[in-house]
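Supplementary Methods. Inverse-folding protocol.

Structures were first reduced to a discrete structure-token string of length 161. This string, shown here, constituted the complete conditioning input.
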């Protein structure tokens, strides 16, 4: 084999290795950008405005009376006003969302934020108007189920924080 053929084979090997490395980097990046939990099932009840999915992660039982779920809100989607007799904790894991307690200003939630929803305080949460939002909701069930109230008026949802 002459020098020219060896050089061509070496070049093909380097290009091939480079393409493999880029593909592996792309796959790693895509994996890192994927959601933590499955999207779950689309919620079909009337406790939400817009499109929302729920993946139940842990059901409350006699050993642990907390339920845990991953909730995905499409842009513009939100819950109704509601209360939790034993409170709730929200962990923002992707996107941009909102949280508001009755009589308080709306808060913007971003990945990494945590909110403690006090027991029996009316509140709502959901996605911003132009970005989906994913949260993990940890809800105490020892004092009863969620109490659903009125829908969040568009004027309340659209008000700047």
């Amino acid at each position: 084999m002459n020098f020219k053929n060896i050089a061509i084979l070496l070049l093909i090997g380097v290009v091939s290795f480079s393409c493999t490395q880029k593909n592996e980097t792309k796959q790693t990046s895509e994996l890192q950008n994927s959601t933590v939990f499955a999207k779950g099932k689309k919620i079909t009840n009337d406790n939400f405005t817009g499109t929302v999915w729920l993946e139940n992660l842990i059901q409350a039982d006699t050993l642990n009376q907390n339920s845990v779920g991953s909730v995905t809100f499409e842009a513009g989607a939100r819950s109704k006003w509601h209360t939790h007799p034993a409170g709730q904790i929200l962990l923002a894991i992707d996107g941009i969302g909102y949280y508001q307690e009755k009589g308080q200003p709306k808060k913007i939630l971003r990945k990494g934020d945590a909110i403690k929803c006090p027991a029996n305080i009316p509140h709502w949460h959901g996605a911003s108007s132009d970005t989906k939002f994913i949260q993990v909701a940890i809800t105490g069930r020892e004092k009863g189920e969620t109490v659903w109230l009125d829908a969040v008026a568009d004027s309340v949802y659209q008000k700047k924080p």
